[in-house]
Amino acid sequence: MQVEVTSVAKSPQQLVKSAAAVYVITCEDIRRSGVTSIPEALRLAPGVQVARVDASKWAVSIRGFNNLFAKKLLVLIDGRTVYNSLFSGVIWDVQDTMLEDIDRIEIIRGPGATLWGANAVNGVINIITKSSADTQGGLVTAGMGTEERGFGSLRYGGQVGQAGTYRVYAKYFNRDAAVDAHGDETWDDWDMVRAGFRSDLEPSSRTSLTIQGDIYSGQAGNRITLPSFTPPYSQVSEEDMDVDGGNLLLRSKHTFSDQSELELQAYYDRADRELFMGDLERETLDLELQHHLSLGSRNDLLWGLRYRHVHHNLSMSIPDIIHFSDRSMHLVSGFIQDELTLVPDTLKLILGSKFEHNDFTGFEVQPNARMIWTPHPRHTLWAAVSRAVRTPSRDEHDVTWLQAVLPPEQTGAFLPTAVRFKGDNDVDSENLMAYELGYRLQWSQAFSLDLALFYNRYDDHLSYEIGEPSLDISSATLNVPVHPDNTNKATTYGGEVVLTYHPLDWWEMEMVSSLLEMDFDASNSSTDKTSQETYEGRNPNLQFSLRSNMNLPHDLELDLWCRFVDRLEALDISDYTTLDARLGWRPSQNLEVALVGRNLLKSRHKEFRDEHLNLTATQIERSAYLQVTFQF
Known about the structure:
Layout: E1 4-5, E2 13-14, E3 21-26, H1 27-33, H2 38-41, E4 48-52, E5 58-62, E6 73-77, E7 80-81, E8 102-109, H3 113-116, E9 123-129, E10 137-145, E11 148-159, E12 164-175, E13 190-204, E14 207-227, E15 234-257, E16 260-275, E17 278-295, E18 299-316, E19 322-323, E20 327-343, E21 347-358, E22 362-376, E23 379-390, H4 394-397, E24 400-406, H5 408-411, E25 417-422, E26 430-442, E27 447-466, E28 470-472, E29 477-504, E30 507-521, H6 531-536, E31 542-552, E32 556-565, E33 576-588, E34 591-598, E35 604-605, E36 620-621, E37 623-631
Parallel strand pairs: 6-9, 25-29
Antiparallel strand pairs: 1-2, 3-8, 4-5, 6-7, 8-9, 10-11, 10-37, 11-12, 12-13, 13-14, 14-15, 15-16, 16-17, 17-18, 18-20, 19-24, 20-21, 21-22, 22-23, 23-26, 24-25, 26-27, 27-29, 28-29, 29-30, 30-31, 31-32, 32-33, 33-34, 34-37, 35-36
């Protein structure tokens, strides 16, 4: 609990003093878990739903509403927002770096909209990499296994004169395809190559400068069922789809005094992705200013301004499936937050709000009030009340796409029925009122407890309304339009608990449990008869995780990780229990050999089924891999 976090207040503070449900995944947690990707690492945290869709895709959310493109979650890498505004979700296959370069992953469960803005509704995930000063010298990793066909990475760090450091890296992996219910491979094998750099400079004692960037290129197989206007009214498409992109970030901090610090950040991000309906190009430019100011001993003030520009360009190859126009979007925002010390070292009140203007819904205000009470050094209680909004994505606002063509014998109509989703310019933001309560106990160096409870009320939640059918002569179908509206409401409530125990100096254990309940309230006037069952049955009510890390004699490490995930009724997915094991050996200070087994209890199991892109349902197989890491 003494670990440092920055995501809660946008400034460094100890986790135990944070008035939010925050969890930190450290670089050591990542190494000893045996994971090979960022989404897999997120399974370590409480309250996070992570489900693998196929070899290259994940559904990731916090406190419910999980989907391939979960819309109520904000993800950042070193302060760079990585969600795709076309879907308001994260495309996880390109969110990567050398896992050895990650310093920590900070996960806020609950709204972070006051500081981070719209879409930080159910939580914020901030992936923070190490300073280049902490990655000096060289590092090489290489490995292979049953599903990890082959992977490797190379990193080198050095000095920049007397006032700075740098590192450069490159990595590659090739992953085998998943399998279907019959055990046959599903055309979703995946390979990626990535390279990047980071430099941290100190031109003066009061100024620091960070420059970093990445480029990547890869290919992932996809098996997708597309609608067709001719019998059998659907067709299976198997394609290898290319992805390319890169980003460049510049961040400068200047300390005017012990009471005043200014930070400027700018980044450019470009992503090119081949989709089943064409090639999508996205460009993002983001500028941000932040000022931290201490006003005496009782007021700690933070304020900031931001401008974001996003441009989408789609070259369509299947115009009958989707209609999508090029568009630029602009977002302007500001925030202010004041941390007031009411009783030194005992009681604090945090008040703040985000003010934001976007192209879809105009002006949004997202206030927040938090309080933290430390009656005893071992005990901390905190509470929060927050308002957050989830702004519409482009596909909900102005994209039209063909969802399905239903044969006459299924509907009873005299013609095939074409179901088309049509975005609505009048769709509004979803609104959340969140109430949170937390308690932390640091009983001793060997035992700690972290408990968080929440109650979330969503108003103006999206529904998908069925319009009046019409005859489409050009395609000889009965056209049934579906459009989004804000007629529904929803309530989620539950809690998470983390117990950490060190029974011996060489043995550490952690138990994580998450409980989630959802009540979806559909309007009586709504024609949407499926959202309630879909939303309520797409998230596990219970998740449980138990980890054991042991440092054994002869420089051996034995790590075990058992997880239970409750069933997903709406997707017809049973509950499952997994066991991962890692055996590590350090024959010298610079060399590590690790043997990792994953999903050891069953030969394969289902975790999620996508209903957005009609991807072929896959199962995750038992696997093992061997990895060698050498530092020089």
